[in-house]
Amino acid sequence: xxxxxxxxxxxxxxxxxxxxxxxxxxxxxxxxxxxxxxxxxxxxxxxxxxxxxxxxxxxxxxxxxxxxxxxxxxxxxxxxxxxxxxxx
Length: 88
Hints:
Elements: H1 2-14, H2 17-41, H3 46-69, E1 70-73, E2 76-79
């Protein structure tokens, strides 16, 4: 059981899912802060800030799935190569 978990966590690291999660969280926080400052100055209704927060929260799992499935390389976006499974 622990071996499966450690392999899964190693695969998350190899596919850079942790990196994407951290960058996404920082960018989302910056967007929220900018929206909190700018939206009242632009006289936007209160629901627009709620919409921005909800949209970024909904985008988080999508970003993680895309990070799992694809790599960005100098040759462009490519599917992440799977590691061969060890038998036994």
